[in-house]
């Protein structure tokens, strides 16, 4: 009996020890998520910290973090049990989660401010659309944002019809000038940046990538096309609820693209579809390496992409290595996201000027071979019928927790939704919302 109790005691001790080790491994993810997202919401979006904690951070272990906002130094430090993380804001760069460096070391790098002076704010506002359609959509806009009639907790709602604004509504504390988080919609902006570089003859998306770490094995055959269609074959775990690849990348690693490209090959490139936020950070790291300096890269991105769209002051946040995080962290206004969607609706043109290469939008909408018609190139597709009550030619940018740009070519409609829908039983009813919008714009 004593021997049995001793074994039980040992087993219990090992279980407790194992639990503590695993919990310790989660500490940088828990505190890193809180610090990074609270800092960006406060210093980039201008939101109240208490509102962010009550909504955005009110889940799982994250809700138990203790957060200190330092407005003088523009940092946020988050603590949970014995864990601690700090995130720092820098003008132009947004917020970076500190990993292995101090705030002072991080701020030795300053954003070249003359880049933004070159990018003039578009003096012409988005035009106003059909007044009759706008009147029809007004009740839906109010019901969706103010009354949560379609569930979720939307922050911003914009609808364009034939390029003109026919609906626009914002939650309390949010407005037309508020820069809001893209989450994975940033991947679609990476698509645009690649397209512009292709147009400028700087890239061949079908050629193997010259990544040094891949040259000794079959990863050397991976192309930009493979990564953009999420068919690189690299091993990846996108589970947000655990110590997965995506969480380790976003909240622990200094160089996120390097972490993602270091994963081994699990499938032959081009043969297996696996959604991977790591793929976009590999792409952004690769694009950055194509330029002689970071300043040259930033200048190119802001002038050739954002300025071409009429977007002023976009904040594309970086990791500690200096790579813009195409997987997750772009901040622009709701109208800016609408401008982006309109460019894809207009076949890659803005006000008649071609920004993306001829045929790029068709390429973007071509289903990845093994995605079951769900995915193109950093854009999602409705060819699979995910939203059964709207046209199958709809394609869209989709971000974590309710960030979306829906593009309807046959209806000439763009719908932008930005918000927060953290619980599975409280997700926005996109199908019904989109169906109701289209019913009022097509007649």
CATH fold-level topology of the largest domain? Beta-lactamase
Largest sheet: 6 strands, antiparallel
Q: Could you spell the SSE succession in H and E letters?
A: HHEEEEHHHEEEHHHHHHEEHEEHEEEEH
What is the helix content?
25-40%
CATH class descriptor of the largest domain: Alpha Beta
- The number of helices is 14
Distance from first to last alpha carbon: 81 Å
The CATH architecture category of the largest domain equals: 3-Layer(aba) Sandwich
Please state the CA-atom Rg, rounded to the nearest Å.
Answer: 22 Å
Spatial ordering of strands, largest sheet: 6-5-15-14-13-12
- Uncertain parts: none
Question: How many structural domains can be distinguished in the coordinates?
Answer: 2
Task: State which percent range the strand residues make up.
Answer: 15-25%
Structural class: alpha+beta
Provide structural commentary.
The chain is an alpha+beta fold and 443 residues long. The protein has two domains: 2-105, no CATH class; 131-441, DD-peptidase/beta-lactamase superfamily (Beta-lactamase, 3-Layer(aba) Sandwich), CATH 3.40.710.10. Helices cover 37% and strands 16% of the residues. The chain has helices at 2-43, 49-55, 103-106, 114-118, 131-145, 186-199, 224-228, 245-251, 256-261, 277-289, 294-309, 334-345, 360-364, 430-441, and strands at residues 66-70, 75-80, 83-90, 94-97, 153-161, 164-170, 180-181, 315-316, 330-332, 349-350, 353-354, 380-381, 395-399, 403-408, 413-420. Strands 6-5-15-14-13-12 form a six-stranded antiparallel β-sheet, with helices on both faces. A four-stranded antiparallel β-sheet has the order 1-2-3-4. A hairpin with a 3-residue loop joins strand 3 and strand 4. Helix 1 (2-43) crosses helix 8. The longest helix is centred in the first third of the chain and has 42 residues, at 2-43. The model has no long low-confidence stretch (mean pLDDT 93).
